[in-house]
Amino acid sequence: MSRPLLVLVGPMGVGKSTVGALLAERLGAGYRDTDEDIVAEQGRTIAEIFVEDGEAAFRALEKQAVHRALTEHDGVLSLGGGAILDEDTRALLTAHRVVYLSMDVEEAARRTGLNAARPLLAVNPRKQWRELMEARRHLYEGVAAAVVPTDGRTPEEVTQAALDALELKEA
Questions:
Q1: Count of domains forming the chain
Q2: What is the value of pTM for the model shown?
Q3: 35 and which of 24, 68, 80, 137 could share a cystine (Cβ 3.0–4.6 Å)?
């Protein structure tokens, strides 16, 4: 059974995909994103799954994708923003090196534009983002071996901070 070198968690738009790919490159490892796994498997976007099947159906797909990736992938793994809502997933993550990429609402607004393409943020996005983060922050922190703030940092700076936090050596 494989296990990821490290797992990235954090809110939508924090840069998990960008930083994950950079970390994989620096560590000489593969990169995998469970959201991409779901899209490839379902043949539709996450927004479409939310709209057509509802959040509960998406979360069930997400849980399967995360559990599969945690056993199959030996590189850098990024999880969707809400993956940590599942108790079983959080329990599994305790055995892994998890980095929580954090950001404040102003940074989130700059990065994502807090736009309606994000299904959970369709109305009053700043308020909803704050509420999502208040509900999730302790879950992210609870699974994380390291917390790396991304505010005002380039992807390269975040990547280096994650490597330093976990004391991982580059390839």
A1: 1
A2: 0.87
A3: 80
CATH of the domain at 97: 3.40.50.300
Strand 31-33 and strand 98-102: the pairing is unpaired
Q: Is residue 171 domain-resident?
A: no
CA–CA separation, 32 vs 78, rounded Å? 6
Contacts of residue 121, defined as CB under 8 A and 6 or more positions apart, other chains included, come to 12, 114, 115, 128, 129, 132
117-152 pLDDT tens trace:
555 555 666 777 778 788 889 999 999 999 999 988
Give the count of beta carbons closer than 10 Å to the beta carbon of residue 2: 11
Instruction: Quote the CA–CA distance of 145 and 19 in Å, as a whole number.
Output: 17
Tell me which residue range forms the domain holding 139. Answer: 6-166
The closest alpha carbon to 32, from 5, 59, 64, 58, belongs to 5
CA atoms within 13 A on the CB side of 95: 10
State how far the Cα of 98 lies from the Cα of 89, in Å rounded to an integer: 12
On whether residue 13 sits in a domain, the answer given is yes
**Tens of pLDDT along 1-45?**
568 889 999 988 888 999 999 999 999 999 999 999 999 999 999
Chain CA centroid to CA 69, Å:
13
